[in-house]
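Following up on my earlier thread - several people asked me to post the actual chain instead of describing it. Fair enough. Here it is, all 212 residues.
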Amino acid sequence: MAAHAIEFVLLFFAGPALFAYTRHRIPAIPALWVWTAWCLYVLLRDPNFNREHLWDSAPFFRYAPSIFAIFIAALAIGIALIRRYAPELFLSLPRSKPALWAALMVLYPVLSVYPQGVVFRAFVFDRYRDLFSSNWAMVAASAAAFTWVHIVFHNRLAIVLTGFGGILFGLRYLQTGSLFITSVEHALYGCAIFTIGVGRSLHHAEMRRGST
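Reply from S.P.:
Thanks for posting it. Predicted structure:
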């Protein structure tokens, strides 16, 4: 258990801090893919890991009303805040760079969202469950790791947004045991953020400027 605790701290807190605050030219997305591949390797070697957690779309329609109700409410609040405090940013990406926006809508869920789900939901919940005394503690640990890794963007708004997201997605994974469902929910919020005008807070250009 102690070894897993040390591993958790090194992988999910020390590692991202080192990545964020040292000079390097390693792109974040390929680094995420390598991390995801290692996590998948560990998970698939574990005979106790239920591989259905990696997809299992069957329960989706049972949870869809809750997913979309929360999302619509959050989206309405987000749009209202942007229109009130930064109206120049509203729909800035689809208006100024429609091709990039369209590419993000297609590629972001596949290349970023699902890999993050493997690392911060499936891997964290399965490998470190014995470290935490309750489901709430497990969700909090997953959310903390998910939030902390976004320090690579050197942006406070990214930390705030991913803090809320980490709790929501962790609770959803605990509830459903499905990366398909949590990835759909994660993708909804991520694509909405890029669309309504605050996507630059989660853009890798911000990270590169912060690390130079």
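Residues 2-210 form one domain. That should answer part of your original question.
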